[in-house]
Design brief:
alpha+beta; Immunoglobulin-like; Rossmann fold; 3 domains; 23 strands
């Protein structure tokens, strides 16, 4: 079904640059700030760096002059520099948005998390027995979260579940993980089939052929379920990356999981092993967001007497090689994103604490690449220090995605992924005001979407900054079923003076829609055609204030 009564107009926001700070880098006393408006056809690459000395302690009080950044061997000018240190605990302040205002900006909601850590409790790729152990370890860890830590807790079974979004309330996190009980998942069990084997019939050639065919069929089913698990995991990581994209500073994902095999989950996207990532979609999200991943092996160490003593030697070897493949995947992903992999230990809580420590002390370096080759290839980053340190950890590169438009099917798929995600995407910030139109029974709404045009990747040609936005409006019922959807492409063209003004004042997109009878939630998704960056805002219908009665 399609929504009715659509209309669009472009107008200038004259009330001030509400979203003007969205594209600014993390602020600090050492940060260089430009005094003029930056044109949107430049691209900032940000790199979060953790520096530790020989004893493992963080190295603090470094300045921009202590660092050199290389892009494929070429030194780059560090345009922005920020340093992070443990914050003084501050009380959580509620948001101050007026009624009928909605946003995907954490600061405007009174939830600005600064440096953040996300804990992903992955039950999809973890055995039932390991889930129970890990759940206890996560509870033990969350009992000691510091007041200054901003933590989000998500779960993954066949879908990504928001257990608790960013908070400093440790009790809320504990209650969330306690409510997420271990489950035996068919998707995990079917992808780990046991061998069909009748030893008493090994001397029967006909039986052995039949047995081999059964095991071959089971393995094919198992491989397909593994692929499904990998795809669901990739989608979850991509959703999380999109959700934290608008947060400045370092972002850590602590992924507690049994893992998945590298030969399925990884795709070769660069000549050498250190520059392979999950797949092009996840790689693009991680490349643009700069989110460090800390995989923690949920399996830990086999307890004595709990090993595969009843399995055949072949099955035991298969378990060993699969576990080694999982660990290779963990190391590869951690190294590529600037995180660290933890395995071979039963102390999951300690591994999570060590991942959190990286988020407390870090540096952010920002540069505008000078290569001019936006051809989609992977480009290596190297960071050096004047004074050598024992360990310098950062993401190893980024993708130089071109600004040419993607095909319609790909755009549609990207929009749908963000539209159905349980998390709002924040790479494009927006502030939406909703005005219910009288009479209420008509269920008509006027929407005003305020945005900062400096977020858009525009091209300058024939004296104009030009680009386009794909705008997607989705209505869902209480069960998440899509009732109505409509997509529009809006072309942008600004003269230089107009762009300079709008970059300071902001712009408004206005639209009108009629809600379906069972609509309980509206989500607006916007995609910048130049960069592919997306943002979304979810608006529960029950939170709308009623229309103001007309004056007599």
């Amino acid at each position: 079904m399609r929504t009715a009564g659509w209309g669009f107009s472009l107008s200038v926001l004259l009330t001030g640059a509400i979203l003007a700070a969205q594209t600014a880098p993390p602020s600090s006393s050492a940060t260089d700030q430009p005094t003029t408006v930056i044109r949107s056809n430049t691209r900032l690459v940000q790199v979060s760096v953790v520096v530790r000395d020989k004893s493992g302690k963080p190295v603090t009080h470094l300045t921009k002059e202590d660092f050199t950044v290389f892009d494929e061997g070429r030194p780059q000018h560090i345009a922005f520099f920020g340093s992070e240190a443990p914050a003084v605990p501050a009380p959580v302040t509620p948001g101050h948005l007026p009624p009928n205002f909605f946003t995907n900006r954490f600061d405007l909601k009174g939830q600005d998390p600064g440096q953040v850590t996300i804990v992903l409790f992955d039950t999809l790729n973890t055995s039932f027995e390991d889930q129970a152990w890990v759940r206890g370890q996560i509870i033990r860890f969350l009992q000691h979260v510091s007041p200054e830590d901003h933590v989000a807790l998500y779960g993954l079974n066949t879908l990504l579940i928001v257990l608790q979004d960013f908070t400093q309330d440790s009790s809320a996190l504990l209650n969330a993980v306690k409510s997420f009980t271990p489950k035996e998942l068919a998707a995990f069990d079917v992808s780990h089939p046991g061998d069909f084997d009748v030893p008493a019939l090994h001397d029967d050639p006909a039986w052995m052929k039949f047995q081999a065919r059964v095991n071959e069929a089971n393995q094919m089913i198992s491989d397909q379920y593994k692929v499904n698990r990998v795809n669901a995991t990739i989608a979850a990581i991509e959703s999380i990356a999109n959700h934290v994209a608008g947060i400045p500073g370092r972002k850590n994902l602590v992924w507690v999981s049994g893992g998945f095999p590298m030969e399925i989950g990884m795709g070769v996207i660069a000549p050498d092993r250190d520059t392979r990532l999950l797949n092009p979609n996840a790689a693009k999200a991680l490349s643009s967001v700069s989110m460090a991943i800390y995989p923690i092996d949920a399996h830990g160490i086999e307890n004595p007497g709990m090993g595969p003593s009843m399995q055949s030697p072949g099955k035991a070897n298969e378990s060993f090689f699969e576990r080694q493949s999982n660990r290779d995947s963990f190391r590869l992903l951690a190294d590529a994103t600037g995180g660290k992999a933890f395995y071979g230990s039963n102390d999951v809580a300690d591994a999570a604490r060590r991942a959190f420590d990286d988020g407390r002390y870090s540096y952010t370096l920002g540069f505008y690449p000078d290569h001019g080759k936006w051809d989609g290839k992977y480009r290596k980053i190297k960071v050096t220090l004047k004074t050598p340190a024992a360990q310098v950890r950062y993401r190893k590169g980024y993708f130089s995605y071109p600004d040419r438009p993607a095909d319609e099917e790909k755009i549609k798929a990207e929009l749908l992924d963000v539209a159905v995600s349980p998390l709002d995407a924040t790479n494009l910030a927006m502030l939406i005001s909703v005005k219910p139109v009288a009479p209420p029974e008509k269920r008509d709404l006027d929407l005003r979407i305020e945005m900062d045009p400096k977020q858009f990747l525009l091209s300058f040609a024939d004296g104009h900054d030009t680009g386009a936005l794909d705008m997607y409006y989705l209505q869902r019922d209480a069960q998440g079923k899509i009732l109505a959807a409509d997509k529009h492409r809006l072309g942008l063209s600004f003269e230089p003076k107009q762009y300079e003004f709008l970059a300071k004042a902001g712009i408004i997109f206005e639209s009108h829609l009629t809600m379906q009878a069972d609509t309980s939630e509206i989500r607006v998704v916007i995609r910048d055609a130049g960069s592919g960056a997306m943002g979304s805002v979810t608006m529960p219908v029950k939170s709308f204030a009623p229309p103001t009665p007309a004056a007599n």
